[in-house]
C-alpha cells in the first residue's frame, strides 16, 4: 500500500544537486580491504547514477591516497579505508581489526589495523555496495530540516597510522657504493655486508670487491 504525508511543502523534498564522495585509502594495490571497497564503491555509484541523472543531481567521486602523516592530518584521516559523502563519514564508528595486507606493507611488529564496516548488524571487511548506495541516496534526499553530525575533534594522526607510515617510509633501497662498477657490487656480497666488503667508498683504497 502506498501512503502519502499531506500538507508538506513541495520544496521539502528537493534533491541535493551536488554530491561529493571522497574515498580515502592507504593502498590500492595490495590491501584487500581498500581494493574491495573501491570496487564496491564503483558498483554503488553505477547503481544510483541513472536515478541521479534523471533528477539532475551531480555526483563527483574523489579517490585520495593517504601516504603520509602530513596528508592524514590534512584530511583528518582516522582509519582506512574511509568513504565520505558530502564530507560525512558513511560509517558511524571507526571500528578496526588487524589487516594482514597492510601489516605486510608496513613490516611493523605491532601490525596495522584497518576498518571494519558495520551495516544492519553485520560486520564486513569491505564496505557493502548497499551501504554505500544507501548513504548516497540519503544525502541526495536529505531534507533541509535534517542536520549533519558535528565534526569529530581531530587532535593528531592515530598511532596505528603513524606506525604504518613510518614502516613504509623505512623500506628504502640499500645504498650502492661507487668504488667499483655496479655490476660487480651487485654480486660481490650481501647488501647487509656492503660496508665490510666494499669499505668506505670515500676512501680510494676502501673497496674490497677487487
Structure description:
- The chain has 210 residues and is an alpha+beta fold.
- The model is unreliable at 1-13, 172-178 and 200-206 (pLDDT under 50).
- It has helices at residues 32-55, 69-74, 100-106, 129-140, 159-169, 182-188, 194-198, and strands at residues 18-25, 58-65, 82-85, 88-89, 96-98, 113-115, 117-119, 122-124.
- The strands form three sheets. Strands 2-1-3-4 form a four-stranded mixed beta sheet, covered by helices on one side. It has a two-stranded antiparallel ribbon with strand order 5-6. It has a two-stranded antiparallel ribbon with strand order 7-8.
- Helix 1 packs parallel to helix 4 and helix 3 crosses helix 5 (159-169).
Please tag this protein with its features:
210 residues, alpha+beta, Glutaredoxin, 2 domains, 4-stranded mixed beta sheet, two-stranded antiparallel ribbon, disordered N terminus
Outline:
The protein contains 7 helices and 8 strands. It is an alpha+beta fold and 210 residues long.
Q: Roughly what fraction of the amino acids lie in strands?
A: 15-25%
CATH architecture of the largest domain: 3-Layer(aba) Sandwich
CATH superfamily of the largest domain: Glutaredoxin
Element pattern in H and E:
EHEHEEEHEEEHHHH
Helix count, DSSP H or I runs of 4 or more residues: 7
Mean pLDDT, all residues: 81
Low-pLDDT stretches: 1-13, 172-178, 200-206
Number of strands: 8
- Determine the CATH topology of the largest domain: Glutaredoxin
How is the biggest beta sheet arranged?
4 strands, mixed
Principal-axis shape equals elongated
| Share of residues in helices | 25-40%
Please write the CATH class name of the largest domain. Alpha Beta
Amino acid at each position: 500500500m502506498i501512503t502519502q504525508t499531506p500538507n508538506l511543502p513541495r520544496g521539502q523534498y528537493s534533491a541535493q544537486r551536488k554530491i561529493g564522495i571522497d574515498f580515502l585509502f592507504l593502498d590500492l594495490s595490495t590491501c584487500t580491504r581498500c581494493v574491495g571497497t573501491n570496487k564496491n564503491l564503483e558498483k554503488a555509484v553505477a547503481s544510483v547514477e541513472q536515478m541521479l541523472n534523471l533528477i539532475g543531481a551531480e555526483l563527483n567521486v574523489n579517490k585520495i591516497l593517504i601516504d603520509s602523516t602530513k596528508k592524514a592530518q590534512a584530511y583528518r584521516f582516522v582509519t582506512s579505508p574511509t568513504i565520505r559523502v558530502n564530507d560525512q563519514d558513511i560509517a558511524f564508528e571507526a571500528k578496526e581489526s588487524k589487516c594482514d595486507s597492510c601489516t605486510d606493507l608496513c613490516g611493523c611488529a605491532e601490525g596495522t589495523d584497518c576498518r571494519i564496516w558495520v551495516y544492519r548488524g553485520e560486520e564486513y571487511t569491505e564496505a557493502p555496495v548497499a551501504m554505500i548506495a544507501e548513504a548516497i541516496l540519503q544525502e541526495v534526499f536529505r531534507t533541509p530540516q535534517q542536520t549533519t553530525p558535528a565534526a569529530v575533534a581531530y587532535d593528531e594522526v592515530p598511532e596505528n597510522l603513524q606506525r604504518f607510515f613510518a614502516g613504509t617510509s623505512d623500506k628504502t633501497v640499500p645504498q650502492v657504493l661507487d668504488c667499483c662498477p655496479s655490476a660487480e657490487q651487485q654480486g660481490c656480497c650481501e647488501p647487509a655486508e656492503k660496508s665490510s666488503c666494499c669499505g668506505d667508498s670515500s676512501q680510494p683504497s676502501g673497496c674490497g670487491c677487487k
